[in-house]
Design goal:
CATH topology: TIM Barrel
Shape: globular
Order of helices and strands: HEHHEEHEHHEHHEHEHEH
Radius of gyration: 18 Å
Strand content: 5-15%
Strand order of the largest sheet: 1-2-3-4-5-6-7-8
Largest sheet: 8 strands, parallel, barrel
Helix content: 25-40%
Length: about 290
């Protein structure tokens, strides 16, 4: 199947793409299900990351992530979805071949409503998929939609290193944009497209500029796509300050509809994230307060 045919077939199957307003007020005090449009933003968070936050502050974890606007990536086998939570159970795949095999064997997590494809340069993503991200994402979207799942595309920036014309002298982010990753990923078609920008989150200006350009390319290819951006308190092993993380979110909340938050158990990562979430909560409550 050619890439053009794969994308055309996948677009015909996309029935769950819903546009979101970019500006969001953080927190889940609004009724569940009201995502975007000045209400609750979208989040993607792994269950392991959620647990790391809960270990510091259960209330702040529930405030931000116990709602239908949050996609909880069930990244640990044998771990039950948080009991009673309204979030969206999400199955994480790093290989199209693995997802295809699970579909055939009826082995996808029984409660999954969304499928996340985390293709990167690592052993979990086959070299053939690394070399052909556009074609593979189109096939992934087609199979996910045909089986009733939302499709979340999250191609890593390092995939540019597997593409023809890669220049190691140029920043990966620049080549990610010039090679058209946002366009073909959003246009797979994805219901949600995440920009893995967390590696540069400490440089606020670069982060904002990169996220803005990637988001624009993604929406041009698929006006209905929901665009998120990756954030982390320790991308690539480098510690990010509380204020750097906070500024990255505040300065892009009018550009994207939410974030994929990565948090390991390593101190001080959970503590830093909780402090940022508390600041966002306080900011949201001030914004909601009626003016005299």
């Amino acid at each position: 199947m050619t890439l053009r045919l794969a994308i055309s077939a996948a677009i015909a199957l996309c029935t769950a793409c819903v546009p979101l307003a970019a500006q969001s007020t953080f927190g889940s005090t609004s009724p569940p299900g009201q995502c975007g449009a000045g209400k609750t933003p979208r989040w993607i968070i792994a269950y392991s990351a959620l647990r790391n936050i809960q270990n510091v502050d259960k209330d702040i974890a529930s405030y931000f992530f116990n709602n239908p606007c949050t996609y909880i990536d069930e990244d640990e086998q044998g771990v039950a979805f948080p009991k009673g939570w309204a979030s969206v159970p999400t199955a994480d795949y790093r290989s199209y071949a693995a997802f295809q095999a699970d579909i055939t064997a009826n082995a996808v997590r029984a409660n999954a409503k969304a499928i996340l494809y985390d293709n990167e340069i690592w052993s979990d993503t086959p070299a053939s998929e690394q070399a052909a991200p556009a074609a593979t994402e189109a096939l992934f979207a087609k199979l996910a939609h045909a089986n009733g799942y939302l499709f979340i595309a999250t191609p890593a920036t390092d995939l540019v290193r597997s593409q023809p014309g890669y220049n190691k002298a140029k920043p990966d982010q620049d080549q990610y944009l010039s090679m058209g990753f946002p366009g073909f990923s959003a246009g797979a078609p994805a219901d949600i497209y995440n920009i893995q920008a967390q590696a540069i989150v400490a440089d606020t200006a670069s982060y904002v500029s990169y996220v803005a350009e990637a988001a624009a390319q993604g929406r041009k290819a698929n006006p209905n796509v929901v665009v998120l951006a990756g954030i982390s308190p320790a991308p690539t092993g480098h510690t990010v300050t509380e204020d750097q993380l906070y500024q990255a979110i505040v300065q892009t909340q009018s550009i994207v509809s939410g974030y994929w938050l990565n948090v390991s158990a390593t101190s001080p990562q959970p503590q830093t994230v909780v402090q940022v979430l508390r600041r966002l909560q306080s900011r949201s409550l001030r914004q909601r307060r009626p003016r005299p």
